[in-house]
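Sample A.
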Amino acid sequence: MKQQQRKALALAAVLALSAFSAAAQGTGAAARGAQAANSAADTGYKAYARRDYAAAVEAAQRAVQLAPQRRDYWLLLAQALAANGQLSQADQALERAAQARGDDAALTRARADLGRMHAQAAGDAMYKALAAGDVKTAVAQGTEAVRWAPENAGYRLVLVHALLRDMRYADADRVATEALALLPESAAPLALRAYARQGLNRPAEAAADVDRALQQRGVSAAAHRQLRLLAADLALAQGNGQRAMDLLAAFPANDGDAAARRELARQRLAGMAGDFALRAPGIDCSNVDAAQTCTLQAAALPPMPGFANATAAYRALEQKDVQRALEQARIATNASPGNRDWQLMHMNAALAANENAEAERAATAALALRADAATLAQRSTIRRSLGDVAGANADAEAALQSGELPVTTQAALLADLGRTREARERLASAPAEQATPQTRLDQAYLSTRIGDSEGARQAFAAADAAGGLPPTSLLDAGYAAMKSKHDQEAIGYFHRAIDAVNGMQLKLDPQLVYDTRRSVADLERRWGVLASLTMRNAGGVVPGIGVVGGPTGSRTTQAGAEVYYRPWGWRNGEFVEFFARGFMTLDSQANGDTGSDSFSGALGARWKPFSSQNLVLSLARVFGPNVNGDWLAQVGYSYDYGNDLRVDVPSWWTHRFYGEVGRYLEEGNNYGLAYLYLGRQYLVGNSGRTTVYPHLFAGLEYNSADLVEKTSSGVGPGISLRHWFREDVYTAPRSYWDITAQYRFRTSGDDRLKGFYLNAFLNY
């Protein structure tokens, strides 16, 4: 018995060990399967990321085969299939994903993405079918597009158009009503529903819809013209010739589209015309996302020559493809010269392409068809740009006489006519409560044009407060504030402009960005330090300092420094500065005074009275141990061309002129100097902030107190090394040091402007 028990126990142990081994093997196989599935999914994700969608599909299929319970793998497969154009298979993969457990939010997003792709594919197929004249396919695909994207008004409106062409008027009425719920302020669904209801023999409702369409606000002139033509066609289809004539009364006699319909209306009134076959209007939904509606085009009677080209031109203008717009506009107006709208479109395309002479001809053609104040004002501007002042003035006067123009346009014309005071009065007469942000912008630019910087600043600020200041206007607003001496306000606008450039919201040339930063640096500066160290023949006259000691013909080394303060800021370049300066001779070969014995100091103020001219007036009290205390009055003038850094080119011409005269009021002595530098600066090094400036120098100095030679002049070559520093995101470099070496040849007078000259200068 015990032996049997031992055998039974042994058999049980063997069976247990076998079961454990099998379980272990099963667990290991499952782990290896999960690892293989994860590896396949990882391969699929990477293939998807590099847009190799076929490889992504293959890897994802392998992953779901190995781990069908993983929802994320099914979602990967669905996304890869959709990206590979296999939408129906993607739908099946999503269904399998829904059966697995996982992230419900990810499943919802995947369904939404796939729905958009279905809608886009169906919408594209609908457009292609319409272009090919396959109306039934267009209806089927449009129905699918609407099913997948019920919120897309463009798909619904094009579907209505297709249903009208397929004469499925009940369905067209239903879908147009749905589109109207999406676009309650759009004329397009109302006009399309009117056509559907006319097809259902409900003329009263059709007329009511088209009347509502005509009353919608915000419809462009071109779109309103087409709505009138559509309404006239509907009236003709209803046999109402008088209503058609009333609708067409607003069109000029030589409008080709209206003329053909007028003739049909006359025939209808005379009882001579047969039935009018109402054709579905054309539709363009290419700009529905931006415009929140589609544009309709009345069916041609017969097809108007140039219609396709005009449509292409309008579309190209919307897309800012100005060359194509101009080419298509030329063809359209050549084919139908009596179409005034197309002549105006031709004018706008020519203006956009900077073909002003052609724009003037198109404006003249439009005015010949029907004169109006707005077109006269536009032609006035064009003629002025072409130099036809007499023609421009005549157009401006005629446009002003109409009294139909907006206040800003009237003011602009008055400014063009040189009647600046009237222009300002006209601008001031605009009711503030009726001004829109765009009106404020127009006022700002016009105020800038007539030189009213304060008016421009206020208008820009009002537009900004109303949220109507686009990034493209920030610089203009900043310069208006700067010119009207509101420094902090200008700095704020310039900072925002630089932020907009860095944020990719505004595109400016690098040099213009640098110039803006230079303006910020000028506006923010309140104090500064100037220091120089000079070695030359004798003391002579020093710019900004006046007469300094030093026997003629002897080498001297002299140093000077100045600290200045601008208490009221930049003030559009009309600043006031208070300064303190000192100057001394460090070394003199003629054994003249050096060190503290040679010190000459001054305390004073200077004023730059003009924004546009570098003219500076100065008055200072001069003092020193060996200097007779005196009042020094100075007038300085400078002209610089290319003196600042450039960031757009590696080299540039640089010319500098500085002239100065001074008088010691108590002693009665006078001095003067004039320096000219001509040369070209070159960027050197990798910083973009260091330049070398080889140049030619010419100088003249005068000192009435000199007992031997009162004047001296010289010329010679020179070279300067300058490095700029102290900048940040918003400001250009505020400081620089400069080392200049010259060799001067005396041309007249004594030797002050002769020999080797060396100067080290710091502007901090």
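Sample B.
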Amino acid sequence: MMKNAHRVLEQYFGFSSFRFGQEPLIGHALDKKNALGIMPTGGGKSLCYQIPGLLLDGTAVIISPLISLMKDQVDSLNSHGIASTYINSSLSYEEQSQRMFDVQRGRYQFVYVAPERFDSEGFISSLRRTKLSLIAFDEAHCISQWGHDFRPSYRSVVGQLQKLGNLPVVMGLTATATEEVTKDIQHLLSIEDDHVVNTGFSRDNLNFQIVKGKEKHDFIQDYIKTRPKESGIIYAATRKDIDRLHQWLSREGVKVAKYHAGLSEQERKSAQNQFIKDEVTVMVATNAFGMGIDKSNVRYVIHYALPMNIESYYQEAGRAGRDGERSDCILLFSARDIQLQKFLIEQSLMEEEKKTEEYQKLQQMVNYCHTDKCLQEYMLTYFKDPFRHEPCGMCSNCLHTGEIKDITRESQIILSCVKRMNERYGSGMVAKVVKGSKSQKVMETRFHKLSTYGLLSDLKEKDIMQMIQFLVAEGYLAVEDGKFPLLRLTQESLAILKGEETVQMIIENASKAHQELDVNEDLFENLRMLRKRLAEEHKIPPYVVFSDATLKELCQAKPKTKSEMLQVKGVGEKKFEQYGVLFLEALQEETHQYS
């Protein structure tokens, strides 16, 4: 069967070989074994259920959490000549009925549905009369109560599946799953350990950056100005920030759209379509935007505010560079953002135990912003990535241009002060004491009598705070979980206090400048415009025609014949039949122009 899988991969999708992890996952499905795939965004998860769906007899049901994802995937499959459809609330009752009737008749190889569809006994009854090839849970972390985006409606599908009687092989796919989430998914979907394929979380094409101490608007303006034709997402925490950013960028002449829950469904849908079709280059949005958006040419993701946890951040940042091309993931850090996230946790309707868990996750996110370690390595450690990785060599910490300063003395003073304050106060109060503040609270608690009082009076209070946050990030200090976190010493801090270890910290991180494309940009732009015209004619997103990565390879290889063009990654027989001749003509015109 795997020989046929290779044939389908090349014929329909234009790839000569599978990516790491795809082959064993597809093999499990073809052997009718329930399986779970944990692969980073852009790792090719969709192919893991699409190829078995094409080879197995019957219709594949794909359970997807977002309407936008369904439409993107269906457009893409239909563009490859694969009969596919979706059934969700965007359709009228008559349209839903007709599509379900066609599904029962075996007209479609793939049908995408929302999890809420399984609440309908009529839908379950229709599936009983349908020959099913497989059922796939996309964004499978949504079914786990431990997942960062848990959805009760998604989890309830599991029980409903038992009513089918003709249950086929089941597959779960996700980009972000801690050990706890993985075990929960396995239990719910009856997946054995041997049938879990974890390729790790590493995204080698992503350049992670943390920007501190810069005015956010100035940074965004300068950054976007250098890449006016590139697609990017800017995530903000509140509707107010999104409206303000959208208005400002519009005035600056940026082609920008916005997306948040305060807009009507039609407004959100219109903004999303504009972004997918490259009619606007920048999307300003809350984190409600993007899950499952199969837009491969997003070149950067900027977080205007601190995300609530690392799982959310890695998933949102991972929407950049799905085509494998180098892309930027930038977090604009401000200490004020921490208070906003604490406020959101406190105002939520979560149980106290869950709030405590969210405070723990938020602290890990704050630690990420203050570590001097490789940023990608920090996140891979958080996820307990099964593969060992060296520093990425391209994040803002790996490429720092700041000064490496020995802060052992300052660290000893801070740690000693925490101890003398009986580990009952937070970073703000500790900073005031070692700075020598004469604030009322310092005087009332008589901390001005401590031997550590004022020993760092030569430093600014914000610089002391940064050192404290760094000591937390590196594990020399721990933070008690809660709304008002208290500092306490760790086992690691003893070696610093005894003078057995030194502490070094990077001062004033700087990010690496944007690298220019190693292709003829005029030719690349011509091919982009041809792609956009064809996409408009076929009423599909541009990246469904060809990805940016494929266009760049066409620019470099400059194929002259069909056989040469079929050697380019992303060009299969089906794609060549539809668009190949037009792109060959465009490439020949360019050759004549410069010869």
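B remarks: The two ends are 48 Å apart (CA to CA). The CA atoms of residues 79 and 527 lie 19 Å apart.
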